[in-house]
Write a structure and sequence with these properties.
The protein is mostly helical and about 130 residues long. Helix content is about 55%, strand content about 10%. Helix 3 crosses helix 5. Keywords: DNA-binding, Transcription, Transcription regulation.
């Protein structure tokens, strides 16, 4: 496969860029349960249909929405699979916060059981690298 072919088949925008914008996150929310034409989608936003179409293009380039022509109308539907990349990335931080909250709980429980209010500092939690 040539460099040009591999570039053409890969997304122009990554999932993280696509979901960084609040409008695009709202668009994904609208498309969770049903396929919709751009005319209906644009009715949910205080912007032009052209602006909504540009946001949909970014989402499509990231693989998050698929387009389907029905007559003269283009309909859009959510493609959730690319969100798995985002989920995997966030999973590391879930573990990080779980560790921090557990350390806080131990600290508070120690403080409750100590009469003279001299409490040791919470345990240091070592961050783990995400598993690939």
């Amino acid at each position: 496969m040539s460099k040009l072919e591999s570039t053409a088949s890969s997304p122009k925008h990554d999932v993280f860029q696509a979901v960084a914008d609040p409008t695009r996150r709202q668009l994904l929310g609208l498309l969770v349960d049903q396929e919709m034409p751009v005319t209906v989608i644009s009715g949910h936003f205080p912007m032009s249909r052209t602006a909504v179409s540009k946001h949909l293009r970014v989402l499509a380039d990231a693989g998050l929405v698929k387009e389907r022509k029905v007559g003269r109308e283009t309909r859009y539907r959510l493609e959730p699979e690319p969100l798995l990349e985002l989920k995997r990335w966030l999973a590391f931080y879930d573990r990080f916060w779980d560790n921090k909250l557990a350390a806080l709980q131990r600290y508070v429980e120690q403080a409750d059981g100590n009469d003279d209010s001299q409490v040791e500092a919470p345990l240091t939690v070592v961050k783990r690298e995400p598993a690939e």
